[in-house]
Amino acid sequence: MAKRYLLNLFKIFVFYLLLFFLCRAVYLLYFAGQIRHMGAGVFLLSFYHAFPLDVSAACYLLVPAMLLLFLSNFFLTKFLMSTLRFYLFATALFCALLSMGEIGVYQEVHTKMYFNMLTHLQHTDELFHSIPFTLMFSLLSLVGLLGYISSKLLEKLLPTDVTTKKPSIQSDILKLSASVLLVVALLLIGCHGSLRKAPICGGDVYFSDDQCVNDATVNPMWNMGHSYIETQRTLRGEAYKLLPDNEANEVVNKIFSVEKDTTIQLFKVARPNVCVLILESWSADLIESLGGYKGLTPNFEKLISNGYLFTHVKPAGHVSDQGVPAVLSAYPALPIGSAINQPKHLVHLANINNQLSANGYYSSFFFGGHLIYGNIKTYIDQNGFNRVIEQQDLPPTVPSGRLGIHDSMMLCIWHDSMNTYKQPFLTGLFTLSTHAPFDAISSPTINWGGCHNEYLSTAVYADRQLGKFFEDIKKEKWYDSTIFIIVADHSHAVPKDYPYESPEFYHIPLLIYGGALKEEFRGAKYDHWVSQTDIAATLLHQLGYSSQPYRWSKNLMNPYSQQFAFYTFDEGFGFVDSSGLVIWNNKFPSENRNTGKTEKDKIALYKKGAAMLQVLIKDFLSK
């Protein structure tokens, strides 16, 4: 009796380990071209180093199985065994879906899936339209294959015709009870990762200099469970208390303090039209002047020659529903997702449209797709734009791709709309062509090898459309009274293959351009650290309005403002200023970095980043 119980649990344990092995093998094979420089041995090393975390994940999954097997010895044997097999198959299928989903996610944002990414499953059409057909077919086929293999393994390990003999004597019950106690002890040790004091963490299985290999080694089920727990702790106000509250508040207040409230004026018009052009997924590496690849975006380079370029800009986060509110509301990204995906907090975010509308500006916002993705529509509607246009508001005859209307048409529509507005106006356009599935082009024009050809080729297309757009609008009478703020919502992976949490990955373009820009700033550069959230305060001070509601935004044109940038990623933050850089990764501590020159600098850098994160969470939960 006890022997059968232990044997069945061991079989289930082996089943999960085999499943993890298969999922990891598929992941590594899919990215084999990207990691081939490391040699075939990296496959074996990945499986070896992944074993402790695989064991931990399997032990967590074994808890329900342990209970169901135990209860099946006493009553409802067939029902409980059927329930057990269903549970095993369901978790196996979820693991397969998660593992294959990570392939698609990793190609786009170079990170493993975390809990808040699952919110996008509310809009399955977003996933359908964003993923290339070939990739979708491949991943679904692999999920089906892994599901089939799992069902066959379960048939072998736990045949449906097995009957469980009920314990009939006291010794059977004692042995079975002792077995359960043994299993509980082993599972506790397994879940914890060992007998050591600190529990196992994702960074414990890192072994390579290649981020893709390390991410493959981290068990997806364990990672998702950890992410869920951290998200709930954060929303309860229990996470990221890295400093005493008084000290954290003092550090943040000092970071944003200025000796004198003054502003260098960029605009030659007191109340210019303001056009905010948010470029989907534009990495700074698309632009030669920002240290990027040569020749990809010649039209953007022409804009730079007549605009004011900010060379060291960090986005708030890594997805659009973090980037859009960072630009319009100066609100940083959360380490667990987006503020605008939390409805009860969303309504309390400030927005630059509030100040401009109150001062006579007409406002509009355009997007060629569906703003419902990432809850951006609710956010935009909440903030009172006079006109909001998305794909569903435009004639069905307008040519479009799978995700929506491409940049060529949307820039024309945006241009035409400006000709109808009473000045001054605030208008925004959020582009989409540089988002997967990259179907604005029929075939890649860049053939550098690897998985980034379509992204880079679409960036070339988008740059061409920007060139045409700006050549056309210069002919309009209102152009000389207009300022364009051109900024990316977030960055994107490029062939340089930066680590996901690195400052090199978090580097985006920001350019102020237009007829209302003073001559002395055309072709000039701002070479200090900038956060995406600084746009709001800088703009409002240029217009003579208060930026008081934007506590996370600094006026870049105030020479007394401190120069720094802060960004977050899944369960971590980056902070950079003139003294160095600190990266703090709660999930993978082995990835922590601190480049302060002295120990004092290192402590100060950590405290600044930690205080920003801690006070941000407290501020968010108080809204």
Throw out a few tags for this protein.
19 helices; 11% strand; 3 domains; alpha/beta; Alkaline Phosphatase, subunit A; 12 strands; 8-stranded mixed β-sheet; 623 residues
Main sheet characteristics: 8 strands, mixed
**How many separate helices?**
19
Supply the number of structural domains: 3
Global mean pLDDT: 90
Remind me, CATH topology of the largest domain? Alkaline Phosphatase, subunit A
Over the alpha carbons, how many angstroms does the gyration radius reach?
Answer: 27 Å
Chart the SSEs and their pairings.
Elements: H1 2-30, H2 32-35, H3 41-71, H4 77-109, H5 124-130, H6 133-157, H7 170-192, H8 211-217, H9 220-235, H10 245-256, E1 273-279, H11 298-305, E2 308-314, H12 320-329, H13 343-346, H14 352-358, E3 362-367, H15 376-382, E4 387-389, H16 407-418, E5 425-430, H17 453-473, E6 482-488, E7 508-513, E8 525-531, H18 534-543, E9 564-569, E10 572-577, E11 580-585, E12 593-594, H19 599-622
Parallel strand pairs: 1-5, 1-6, 2-8, 3-4, 3-5
Antiparallel strand pairs: 2-7, 6-7, 9-10, 10-11, 11-12
